[in-house]
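Researcher: Sequence recovery benchmark, item below. Answer with residues only.
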């Protein structure tokens, strides 16, 4: 019995370390698992989200069309570029093209029919002004030179007949004055009053001078009319054009300068036409007034020369009659 008990105790002692080791083993095994668990999740956790993000992104990329991503970013880029780039470049281009289009010819073509009529009338008035200027310059130069030459020829003449012979058949105002003096002397033959003959001859001379003044001033009244009325005609076209511009503003419901400027520019063009016609007309009229005044002074000198020749002829005739009476 004692030996059997010792034997059983020995077996138990042998079995208990083994069971203790077996019990210790499961207890020791979780420790490495716990020690490894933080390392494994720390290494696997980033890998798994990465793979899951890749897997999640791949279906989205596969499901969404390729134009979706550029479309989402394209508006921002296009808007960003449109504001500083396109938005600034297109208005500049349009403004540049607008400035290029606002030439006098294009403004004339796009103007109202009444404004066009005003511009055409003022352009025609300007053409008339310059035509009168060229014609009168030639005419005044010719008649002044001719009258000065005629006065030089009759300066040393002693009678009306000698003066007419010196002038010849040239149709100048001095020739008309000499012819009027001789006609009056012939018609007054037998009248002893020299004063009456000179008065009647002076009246004829005054008529010839007035007729010559009217002839030489021909066209100057038109210059005065153009110079006085052209600014107001152009102003009428301007008022009409601005009125149409305000009507267009009310219809378009905008006060943008790009919309208002063309109509106002067309209206102001009519004023420019009026000033372009009026200013030269006034200057040319004043110039011709001075030149005509100088020419009329020459005509007055010619009238005085014809009167002096007539007085000499009358004195000679009376002297001859007195000498015959004395004989």
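Model:
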């Amino acid at each position: 019995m004692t030996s059997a008990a010792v034997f059983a105790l020995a077996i138990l002692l042998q079995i208990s370390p083994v069971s203790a080791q077996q019990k210790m083993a499961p207890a020791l095994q979780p420790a490495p698992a716990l020690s490894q668990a933080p390392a494994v999740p720390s290494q696997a956790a980033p890998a798994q989200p990465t793979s899951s993000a890749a897997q999640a992104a791949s279906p989205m990329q596969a499901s969404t069309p390729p134009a979706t991503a550029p479309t989402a970013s394209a508006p921002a880029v296009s808007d960003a570029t449109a504001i500083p780039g396109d938005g600034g470049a297109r208005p500049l281009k349009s403004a540049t093209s607008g400035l290029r289009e606002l030439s006098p010819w294009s403004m004339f073509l796009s103007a109202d029919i009444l404004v066009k009529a005003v511009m055409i009338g003022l352009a025609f008035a300007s053409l008339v002004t310059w035509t009168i200027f060229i014609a009168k310059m030639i005419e005044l130069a010719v008649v002044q030179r001719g009258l000065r030459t005629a006065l030089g020829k009759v300066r040393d003449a002693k009678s009306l007949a000698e003066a007419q012979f010196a002038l010849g058949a040239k149709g100048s105002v001095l020739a008309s004055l000499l012819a009027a003096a001789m006609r009056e002397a012939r018609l007054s033959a037998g009248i002893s009053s020299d004063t009456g003959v000179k008065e009647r001859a002076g009246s004829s001379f005054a008529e010839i001078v007035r007729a010559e003044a009217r002839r030489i001033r021909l066209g100057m009244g038109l210059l005065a009319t153009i110079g006085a009325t052209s600014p107001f005609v152009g102003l009428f076209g301007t008022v009409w054009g601005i009125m149409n511009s305000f009507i267009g503003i009310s219809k378009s419901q905008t006060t943008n300068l790009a919309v208002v400027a063309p109509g106002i520019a067309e209206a102001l063009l009519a004023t420019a036409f009026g000033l372009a016609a009026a200013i030269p007309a006034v200057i040319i009229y004043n110039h011709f007034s001075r030149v005509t005044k100088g020419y009329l002074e020459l005509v007055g000198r010619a009238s005085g020369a014809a009167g002096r020749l007539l007085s000499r002829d009358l004195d000679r005739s009376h002297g001859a009659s007195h000498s015959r009476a004395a004989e």
